[in-house]
Design brief:
228 residues; alpha+beta; 2 domains; four-stranded antiparallel β-sheet; 7 helices
């Protein structure tokens, strides 16, 4: 219940009682932005988990004891997984706010077909993220935690996980989730390189100072970029 109260207090009292077009537009944009981040972080988490599954499928019941790069994989799974969980929770909270607004008497007359299409799309995308994370978490509990023996879980520089199939044009242009380490900032987002997940607007990145004058290079989901 407390997250719902947090949403309520984040809205101006008058707008909460009688929301209008500005509140509706903000809620729609808010949930859509949260969805982009959740979907992007989820893509990286799933690719990392699938890579762990491939090691297990090749007969490694304790991949860190037999594969040199398995520890780096495990360390990233333990960062991207919780980040995805938090993002999915944030999406659900934003969607709850939107659902309240679309039922408000002052908003109902504003709901044209285009707006309803965006609302329905947000609902469907949220459901996919909830289901996707639930599947990720169940697999993590059953197959990752039981086979992560001997792993060094310290993060270090690591390449992302490329898609086995050729990338579609929209994938090349879409956002990407990475981790930055060692100080400085992850560019072009300008986010601190402090071990947290960063979502970049396109699949290029570099490490630099706050002015982000470094030269971005292609990067795959789940990469760890280090220093400058």
């Amino acid at each position: 219940m407390w997250w719902w109260l947090g949403i309520a207090w984040s809205v101006e009292p008058g707008a909460w009682i009688a929301p209008g077009p500005l509140e509706l537009a903000a809620a729609l944009s808010g949930v859509e932005a949260r969805l982009v981040r959740a979907e992007t972080v989820g893509e990286a988490a799933e690719r990392l988990q699938n890579q762990w599954g491939a090691l297990r499928g090749a007969g490694a019941n304790a991949p860190c004891e037999t594969h040199a790069d398995a520890s780096a994989l495990a360390a990233r799974i333990l960062v991207f997984g919780p980040s995805w969980r938090d993002d999915v929770q944030a999406v659900r909270a934003e969607l709850a706010r939107l659902e309240y607004l679309v039922a408000a008497p002052t908003v109902v007359p504003l709901l044209d077909p285009e707006t309803w299409a965006r609302v329905d799309a947000a609902r469907a995308r949220t459901a996919r993220e909830v289901a996707g994370y639930s599947a990720f978490a169940a697999w993590h509990q059953r197959y990752f935690l039981t086979t992560a023996r001997g792993c060094d879980l310290g993060l270090g520089p690591a390449a992302g996980i490329s898609n086995a199939a050729p990338a579609a044009p929209e994938e090349l242009d879409g956002p990407v989730a990475v981790i930055g380490l060692g100080g400085g900032v992850v560019c072009p987002a300008g986010a601190p390189a402090d071990g947290r997940v960063v979502v970049l607007p396109a699949r290029v990145a570099c490490m630099g100072a706050s002015d982000c004058t470094c030269e971005p290079l292609p990067v795959d989901p789940g990469a760890v970029l280090f220093g400058r």
